[in-house]
Amino acid sequence: MSERRGRCGDLKTPADYLSRNPRTCAHIICHSLGYATLESEANRRAVEGVEKPVGWHRGQPGGYVRDYSDTLLIFLLKGLRPEKYQERLELLGALANLNLELLPDEMIARLARGENPLCVLSSWVHQLQAQGRELPTALGLPLASSGEKDEHDDAEGIG
To answer: Per-residue pLDDT tens for 114-152?
Structure first.
């Protein structure tokens, strides 16, 4: 604690620091105002829109159309409510531990094309079972092999 006090002197709060360092304070204020201006302009273009000329005749616009920016609106929503609008890939249960390095290239290609991961993996498991092959245990999926019963099978009437 004494080292910190030695380096910072008697500065106890951020306000103390800023009052002793006006250039830093000015820098922070300029950045804040700049960000506020940019955010305000993005909001205006996304929500209020911008008039754009259309129907040119002899160098003069024949009218105007209000154009809104869906992209800016998306970014504003992502910034304001990231918990709702952020891009994310949700993995269910066992898929969270899936070792993709053990998947065949064909399965990875299907996943890359955007196929549902559960459908891709399910079809691969069925292929292996039809061929009488075991599912690689290192894959990370807690599935029973073709000859074993899962404890949930009996409860659901599957087994």
So the answer is: 888 778 887 887 777 787 777 666 465 554 444 444 444
Domain boundaries, the chain: 2-85, 93-156
Within 10 A of 95 (CB to CB), how many other CB atoms are there?
Answer: 14
Which parts of the chain are beta strand (E)?
50-54, 63-67
Contact 40, 48 (CB under 8 A): no
Q: Is the pTM of this model over 0.85?
A: no
Element containing residue 94 per DSSP (H, E) = none
Using N-to-C axis directions, what is the helix angle for 117-130 and 105-112, rounded to 10°? 160
Q: Environment class of residue 17 by beta-carbon count within 10 Å: exposed (0-12), middle (13-18) or buried (19+)?
A: middle
Residues 6+ apart with CB under 8 A from 16: 10
